[in-house]
Amino acid sequence: MPETSRGKKEGSALDALVEYIGSFFPDLRKKLRMAKMKKTQNEYIMDVLVISAMLTLILSVCVALFTIVANGSLLWLAVMVPLIAVATFLFMMKRVDVVMLSRQRNIDKDLLFAGRQLLIEVRGGIPLYDGIVHLTSDYGEVSRAFKEIVDKANLGVPLDVAMEDVAEETPSKPFKRLVLQIVNSIRSGSDIAVALETILDQMSQEQLIEIKAYGQKLNPLGMFYMLFGIIMPSLGVTLIVTIFTFTGVALGQAFLFGALLLVLLMQYMFLTMIESSRPRFEV
Question: Which of 128, 243, 266 is nearest to 190 (CA)?
Fold first, then answer.
């Protein structure tokens, strides 16, 4: 009995800690739903705490070993360990944002094509519900979002309410605009095809503008990539090696290995910047 009572107290204390941490992230529940992560807020925070604790332990051991090798004082670990713990926790908490952003990009990628198919079918006299059913495949994440609408409608939820609910739990703003435009047309009794055509034309123009902006952004990125990723590393290493050769100082393999790691890091940074800024759709 005492052990059971103590276990309950420890569990309640841990739950209280998780609830307290969750109070600092008021949008976490909504983000989890939008990211389609099948975890409650408390479960997500608990997973983050466990992973953060493991990473903190590993990083702290690495820092301690480095300090011992460098004959430094271990007292500063009292400051570093809490900083490492907080930094790793906040970093891991961003995972839901990364998943949500990935889902948003996957929806935006195929949304225009799915919308055009729906427009063609509505203009051809196919009922809106049947047109949405036809979109539940072949369009990746967009199809999954429309399948949620169909599933809700099959459970007896009115189609406009089902569309509004799914739109609220979707991270893609274009998807929300498209669906809510259809909802407004249903409730006002106006022509859905006209509303669809208007919003799709607007989305197409916005995507064209974004593609042009990406093309303009590539020019300075390419220039900086050539300068800092190719020219300066090659000329800089050659110049440093030449200068130290004349002074009689041997740099050794450690310098060349460090220079190689720095070049690889800069290459990765530039490629990541270019890839992350690239539009995920085609027009």
Answer: 128
